[in-house]
Amino acid sequence: MAVGQRFAFTKLLVADLEAEAAFYSAALGLVTQHRVTGGEGQAAYQEIILAAAGDDGPSLILLRRPHQEMPEPGETVLGFVVDDVEQVVREARAAGGVVRSGPTAVPQAGVRVAQVEDPEGHAVELVQMTRAEERGDDV
């Protein structure tokens, strides 16, 4: 069966797999799909593969390389579309995250946006789609 081309996953290098998995589960409802361990010495790695429950869409893979130096957070921004940006910001804060900005309305884009950091400082952008009447569209 041909799979075709599609976006499948993002890998995020982390220092504490368990704490990061707990954050993404508590703040965004992601669930652990798989755990993988492999390699030896400098090539050793551990992964936790997270995804939305019941979803075969893209995955977030938390990657730990125990014998390699960690890069500084800021190498990427993870983006999530959410139903209620204010609620997810509260959940992120309760799960150990830090609010960087928002939630802020961006009417021309039809969204409300906030940015938080996970417990290790990785940026997570939260986007809530707004209703047509809030965007000023003709309904």
Uncertain residue segments: none
C-alpha Rg, in Å? Answer: 17 Å
Number of contiguous helices: 3
- Class by helix and strand content? alpha/beta
Question: Which of globular, elongated, flat, extended, rod-shaped describes the shape?
Answer: globular
**Separation, N- and C-terminal Cα atoms:** 42 Å
This entry's quaternary arrangement is single chain
Spatial arrangement of strands, main beta sheet: 1-4-3-2
Order of helices and strands: EHEEEEHEEEH
Main β-sheet: number of strands, strand sense, barrel status?
Answer: 4 strands, mixed
* Percentage of residues in helical conformation: 10-25%
Describe this structure in words.
Helices cover 19% and strands 40% of the residues. With 139 residues, it is α/β, with parallel strands linked by helices. Helix 1 packs antiparallel against helix 2 (85-94). The mean pLDDT is 87.
Describe this protein with a few key phrases.
139 residues, alpha/beta
List the helices and strands and how they pair.
Elements: E1 9-13, H1 17-28, E2 30-38, E3 45-52, E4 59-64, E5 77-81, H2 85-94, E6 98-106, E7 111-117, E8 123-129, H3 132-135
Parallel strand pairs: 1-4, 5-8
Antiparallel strand pairs: 2-3, 3-4, 6-7, 7-8
Helix pairs in contact: 1-2
